[in-house]
Specification:
Keywords: Membrane, Transmembrane, Transmembrane helix. The protein has helices at residues 37-42, 50-54, 56-64, 74-93, 99-118, 121-125, 133-137, 143-155, 158-173, 185-202, 228-262, 266-277, 283-286, 293-298, 313-325, 349-363; strands at residues 303-310, 330-335, 338-346, 368-371. It has a 4-stranded antiparallel β-sheet, covered by helices on one side. By secondary structure, the chain is α+β, with helices and mostly antiparallel strands. α5 (99-118) packs parallel to α9 (158-173).
Amino acid sequence: MSELFNDEATIELRHTKEKIPAKKKNAELKDIDLLGAEWLIDNLSVYNSSLLNSATELFAILVTLSRQGEPRDINRFRQRLLDEISVFRQRGAHLEYHPSIIEKSCFVLCAAFDEAILYTQWGESARWENHSLLSKVFSQRNGGEAFFTLLDKASQQPAKLVDFLELQYVLLMLGFKGRFRHDNENVLHEIQSNVYSIIRHYRSESVLPVPKIPELIEGKQPWLMLSMSKTLVIAFFITIIVYGASEYWYFNRSQPILAQFNAINTSSVGKKNNKELINISSGSDIGKIVDNRKQELKETLQWEVVLAAFTRSLDAVRLVSELQQAGYEPFTRETDHGVELYIRAGDNLSVIRKLKNELNIRFDLNATIKRAQI
């Protein structure tokens, strides 16, 4: 490892920055086309160093190892890390760095990953040291020693290897300790301070852009859900309104029908019934009519109520018994068609009508009024 930077001559290269046209201010926002977003992330430029920009994804994985749980498949996880190291190496081949710098960068990254995993609970139980990244890629196991050896060599040529020094400094700040893990940490802090001083000498302080305060759009007050009490009050009023509307509709629909019922004249119905139910006896029923009409007018007309006609005398006897128990005085009259049941009603036609209606309702009859036979 002592000859890591002596195998080939180091060539000093200058980084050229492409001129990027300035974006117009206050440009209108347009729909973002996410096609090729992976390419944009891969080429994301965060640091002034192209070497650090190429290792951005590896940094993202490294800082989350301490918070991650044990992988379901440790071999698959190891292969993923190896693939990421391979991608970093391929990117470095297109950068303005000597191939040895890319190889040493892969070496220190593997050492940082191995140490971070070894000191996790699941890394220790999985015996990561037997199949570490350094052993797979570089067939070495002394990453903790070689890291600081490379750091010392690079510190002797800071003008040419400042990007590599910056990569190692980032790994130190992310928690890499190497051979100083179990020693006094003051030595490690001193190394970090020295490396920072070297990098600071070759790196101009970048001015952080002042964030622009966005213009907030004044929005309306968001609609709040009603409380339970307000909901119950609204439901009560809705119920009252619906009930009142239904009553109003029912009243308007029922009034014409009630008016038609009230318009029925019961007296006219009675007259109609009288015309239909009063039978005027013929001359054959009452015998000879007195020729003297004046004498007939003087005589008072007598009426009787015809209750029913029966073909069997037994039925007539049963109804007579019921009427007598109710206080009436019925009598029967035999005819050619059977037995007829009568009640003498007198001469007051209005009283006779009431009697007829009472008998019809009380005994479920269809009685008629008939002039009495003399």
